[in-house]
Amino acid sequence: MGRVDHLDRVPRLTCLVSERDDLTLLPALAEVGVDGFQVRAKTYGGRALCALTERVLGAVAFTDARVLVNDRLDVALAVGADGVHLGASDLPVAEARRVAPDLLIGATCRSRAEVLRAAGDGADYAGFGPVFATTSKAGVPSPLGPEALTPAVGVIPLVAIGGIDAARVAAVVAAGAFGVAVIGGIWRHPDPVGAAKELVAAIGG
Fold first, then answer.
1. Which tens digit of pLDDT belongs to each residue from 124-148?
2. Is 133 annotated as a binding residue?
3. Residue 53 assigned ligand-binding role
4. How close are the terminal C-alpha atoms of the chain, in Å?
5. Buried b (16+ CB within 10 A) or exposed e, 183-194
6. Which pick of 10, 37, 135, 158 has the fewest CB atoms within 10 Å?
7. Which residues does the record give as 2-[(2R,5Z)-2-carboxy-4-methylthiazol-5(2H)-ylidene]ethyl phosphate binding sites (predicted)?
């Protein structure tokens, strides 16, 4: 099945959320303009991940923010999340789209060829990176640099990830990124809500 047109639902600023983060801040993050939350808890089994995702959904229920689940289509469907983000070793995008035609689906990509493949399989957006060096996830490939985004533009929206903070947003947007996904740029900042507000301003309209 081909991709359903979900472009208006792709977040501009996604904050990745784990079991270690302060979920009480989520409503404030959404209020300042974070329009996507991706739940990623790599060590959690299905039951614990469902519970965590339900907490995130509850925290932003009265906002326009989208909630996606990293890796686990089954969890996303079970708890009524808005979407799923799939990496290279996860369920194939085409299978996820067949099972969940209405879900927002993202795919991790590092080149235009991978973006084209993901789009053909039904992905709504490509999580592109890591753009810069990051310490938020172990074992990631070497950073691509913002210039790697430009050849991949024009297929589906690119959401840049990897080492992004407010000071680096302009470079990735200029290179063609539709949006950004952030971990440390929010959670490791002394003022996570203030950092999110700066990121939203840097992304612009």
1. 999 999 999 876 555 667 899 999 9
2. no
3. no
4. 32
5. bbbbbebeebbe
6. 135
7. 134-136, 163
**Do 102 and 81 touch, CB atoms closer than 8 A?**
no
What is the rounded distance in angstroms from the CA atom of residue 104 to the CA atom of residue 68?
8
Residue 137, annotated as binding a ligand: yes
Answer yes or no: is 150 a known binding residue: no
Residue 197, marked binder? no
Nearest to 176 by CA among 154, 202, 198, 161: 154
Question: Does 135 belong to an annotated binding site?
Answer: yes
Strand partners, 10: none
Length of the chain: 205
Tell me whether residue 71 is annotated as binding.
Answer: yes
User: What global pTM score does this model have?
Assistant: 0.93
Mind listing the pLDDT tens digit for each residue in 85-98? 999 889 999 999 99
User: Is 8 labelled as part of a ligand binding site?
Assistant: no
Mean pLDDT for the chain overall: 93
The full set of domains in the chain, from first to last, is: 7-203 (3.20.20.70)
Residue 63 known to bind ligand? no
